[in-house]
C-alpha cells in the first residue's frame, strides 16, 4: 500500500469518527480506541453505476494522523471557522453531520500541518466529499476550506 493511501484512509476514518461523535453526544474517547483497534469503521458502503450498494473493507490507515485529526477537529474553533465561512445559502444548523465532519477534519489538518499546500488539502477533502455527495456539498467543502485556510494562514 502506498503511504499516501494510509493518510487518505486516516482522513476517512477521522470523518467517520467525528460523525459518530456528532450524532452520539455520549460517545467518548473509547470510540477513538475502537477505530484504532479495528473494532469499528472498517467498511464503507459503495454504490455502483446501477445504484447497488456493497460493503467494501477499508485498507489500513495511519493511526497517528487519525488520532491527531479526530482530537484536533473536535475543538470548538473549527466549528466556529466553518460557521463564519458559510454563505447565506447554507445555514449552520442544517448542515449534514457528515459534511460538518469533512470540513472540520480538513480545517484541523490545515491547522496541524501549515506547510501542506492548501490546494492539496482542499483536493483531498473535496474527494472525500465526492464519496458522500453528488451535489453542491462538494462546492461547499471547497469554498469553506479555501476561505478558512486563507484566513488561518494569513
**How many domains would you count in the coordinates?**
1
Instruction: Give the proportion of residues in helices.
Output: 55-70%
CATH topology: N-utilizing Substance Protein B Homolog, Chain A
Count of helical stretches: 7
Global structural class: mainly alpha
Beta strand count: 2
What's the SSE pattern? HHEEHHHHH
Q: Could you tell me the mean pLDDT?
A: 84
What is the 3D form?
globular
Overview of the structural elements:
With 154 residues, the protein is mainly α. The chain has a single domain, classed as NusB-like (N-utilizing Substance Protein B Homolog, Chain A), CATH 1.10.940. Helices cover 63% and strands 6% of the residues. It is built from seven helices and two strands, in the order H-H-E-E-H-H-H-H-H. It has helices at residues 3-23, 30-36, 63-73, 76-85, 97-112, 118-132, 137-153; strands at residues 43-47, 53-57. Strands 1-2 form a two-stranded antiparallel ribbon. A hairpin with a 5-residue loop joins strand 1 and strand 2. Helix 1 runs parallel beside helix 3, helix 5 (97-112) runs parallel beside helix 7 and helix 6 packs antiparallel against helix 7 (137-153). The protein is globular, with a radius of gyration of 15 Å. The model has no long low-confidence stretch (mean pLDDT 84).
Amino acid at each position: 500500500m502506498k503511504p499516501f493511501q494510509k493518510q487518505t484512509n486516516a482522513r476517512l476514518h477521522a470523518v467517520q469518527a467525528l460523525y459518530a461523535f456528532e450524532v452520539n453526544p455520549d460517545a467518548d474517547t473509547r470510540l477513538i480506541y475502537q477505530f484504532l483497534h479495528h473494532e469499528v469503521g472498517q467498511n464503507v458502503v459503495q454504490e455502483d453505476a446501477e445504484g447497488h450498494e456493497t460493503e467494501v473493507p477499508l485498507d489500513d490507515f495511519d493511526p497517528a494522523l487519525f488520532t491527531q485529526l479526530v482530537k484536533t477537529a473536535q475543538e470548538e474553533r473549527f466549528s466556529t471557522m466553518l460557521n463564519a465561512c458559510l454563505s447565506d445559502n447554507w445555514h449552520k444548523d442544517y448542515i449534514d453531520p457528515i459534511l460538518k465532519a469533512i470540513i472540520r477534519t480538513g480545517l484541523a489538518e490545515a491547522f496541524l500541518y501549515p506547510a501542506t499546500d492548501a490546494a492539496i488539502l482542499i483536493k483531498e477533502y473535496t474527494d472525500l466529499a465526492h464519496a458522500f455527495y453528488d451535489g453542491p456539498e462538494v462546492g461547499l467543502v471547497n469554498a469553506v476550506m479555501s476561505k478558512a485556510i486563507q484566513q488561518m494562514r494569513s
